[in-house]
Design goal:
single chain; 64% helix; mainly alpha
């Protein structure tokens, strides 16, 4: 599953067992990216809270936009774990496999000037060259109707997936087709 020791659900006790139960109840199963935190249950709980807030909490960004950001950031970072998970989730909101593949390849948003293209370009730029982001990038988001609250959410989701990609890549978190599919939320 990863390059470090992990505690399986049948070996978990106390706080870890409770968090596992909560995860399985809310998502239908335990993801490898959460299980890799098993040696630090409090970090797992905080990570889960941040994930649920940013991806499922109240926002003017659609769930599809948030999943699109996850895919773009993860593809930019070459994080196959997160690309596979969030491309699967994005498919729930976009019935366009070719379009999702173009998003993964970075082709879908390079030239567009619509809301989605500018969001994805910002996420990619913040991921690949964060010091190159300027006020002009924020103004371009405003030009397609994003308010500052939405811009903040784009930034937070982008930053979150950079964080998660480094957990997955830095600890060798693996995935399978079975592990990627079948989540409730």
């Amino acid at each position: 599953m990863s390059w470090i020791k992990e505690i399986d659900t049948d070996e978990a006790s106390g706080e870890l067992a409770e968090i596992y139960e909560q995860l399985i109840a809310s998502r239908g199963k335990l993801s490898n990216i959460m299980q890799v935190h098993s040696l630090n249950p409090r970090a797992m709980q905080k990570h889960l809270e941040l994930y649920m807030h940013l991806l499922f909490g109240k926002s003017k960004l659609s769930r599809g936009e948030r999943e699109g950001i996850a895919v773009v950031v993860s593809a930019t970072n070459n994080c196959a774990y997160c690309v596979s998970h969030h491309a699967e989730a994005l498919a729930r909101y976009e019935n366009d496999e070719a379009g999702i593949n173009q998003l993964i390849a970075g082709l879908r948003y390079l030239d567009g000037d619509d809301r989605n293209a500018r969001i994805m370009r910002y996420a990619s730029k913040l991921t690949a060259t964060p010091s190159a982001v300027s006020e002009k990038d924020i103004q371009q988001l405003r030009q397609v109707g994003l308010g500052d609250d939405e811009i903040l959410d784009v930034n937070l989701v982008t930053a979150y997936f950079n964080f998660v990609n480094r957990i997955a890549l830095g600890l060798g978190v693996e995935f399978s087709a079975d592990e990627v599919s079948g989540y409730d939320a």
